[in-house]
Amino acid sequence: MDTIVGRLAKSRLPKRKMALVLGYLGTGYQGIQYNPPAHTIDSELFKALVATNCISQSNSDDFSKSSFSRATRTDKDVHALTNLVALKMQRYEVPQQVKAELNEILPDDIRIWDVVPVKKKFNARVMAGTRHYRYVIPTFLLQCGPHSDLSTSQLARFKNIWNMFLGTHNYYNFTPRRKDTNADSPQNMRHMYSIQVSDPFTIAGSTQWLSIAIHGQSFLLHQIRKMVHYALSEYHRSSSDTKSMELLETVDPDLTSATALDTPTEQYIPLAPAAGLYLHHPTFEGYNNQPAARRLQVLDLSGYPACATFEDRIHTEIARSEHVFHEYMAVIRQ
């Protein structure tokens, strides 16, 4: 064997496929996906992985060398309570030590919740089953202004409107147009398992908010933000209040009363602010039923104790963003 090749072979450390469960505040990041020179979650994560010798420097500029995959891609300024990435790591014997060292190096707005062994051919995107998202909105979007209380009947009406999205529907009007996709394409079909609207709660002791929990099989680009705006439009359209009808005309004058779901007719639906959206957690039911998962560790991303405090941080960041940028107020243009 050539001596140089031999030395390289000896220097290579054994690797194992591991999953990192992480949460992050998306503010200030150009999404999660590695896209140099953009500042992304992946770029910060890989710097920390190199610094802790979890991957080699030579593998840091090409994700394919580490068989890298992620459960869910999030866009610019979108937060995640729990997401999951998987890659081959050369440090894996003491996962909790790796977790502690990564958290020491990573910025405070990116946290590692767990380091978990997975099977050799595990692909996070393929193995992820469904996704749970949250969208948080201030109640003044339903009250026609920031200085009135949300009534029980108003809340019930808003909750009921979300039932229209349950089941399987065509979301052609809820994502940017693509030249290669027709209105009746199967790619536009998405299934929503459940949608729950919370009761009002306060963030940082000030404005009242609602949390919309959306559990779906998968989602199109901008789908949830358009669903939120459409639901708000339907809410005000169904109101007999004069102020609410005036608000409807201000919010989206081009949106007709006919449903935008399951129709080939193009309708323009504006985007609700990105700041209110965050990934709550993906699920891995199919993988967890495999013998390999039961032998190693099942992936349940819904129950990490530290996430409760981090979710409060996400809510606080959403409220802070509204205070600074007034994105929600721009929706009603008051």
Automatic annotation (TrEMBL):
What is catalyzed by this enzyme?
a uridine in tRNA = a pseudouridine in tRNA
**The keyword tRNA processing appears for this protein:** yes
Gene Ontology annotations of biological process type: mRNA pseudouridine synthesis; tRNA pseudouridine synthesis
Spell out the catalytic residues: D75
Pfam families, per the entry: PseudoU_synth_1
CDD domains under this entry?
A: PseudoU_synth_PUS1_PUS2
Binding, substrate: Y133
**Residue limits of the Pseudouridine synthase I TruA alpha/beta domain?**
163-284
User: Which Gene3D superfamilies does this chain map to?
Assistant: Pseudouridine synthase I, catalytic domain, C-terminal subdomain, Pseudouridine synthase I, catalytic domain, N-terminal subdomain
Q: Which InterPro entries match?
A: PsdUridine_synth_cat_dom_sf, PsdUridine_synth_TruA, PsdUridine_synth_TruA_a/b_dom, PsdUridine_synth_TruA_C, PUS1/PUS2-like, TruA/RsuA/RluB/E/F_N
Q: Which UniProt keywords apply?
A: Isomerase, tRNA processing
- Classify the source by domain of life: Eukaryota
The Gene Ontology CC terms held by the record are: mitochondrion; nucleus
Q: Name one GO molecular function term.
A: pseudouridine synthase activity
Q: Which NCBIfam families match?
A: hisT_truA (TIGR00071)
Q: Which family does it belong to?
A: Belongs to the tRNA pseudouridine synthase TruA family.
Quote the protein name from its UniProt record. tRNA pseudouridine(27/28) synthase
The organism encoding this protein is Candida glabrata (Yeast)
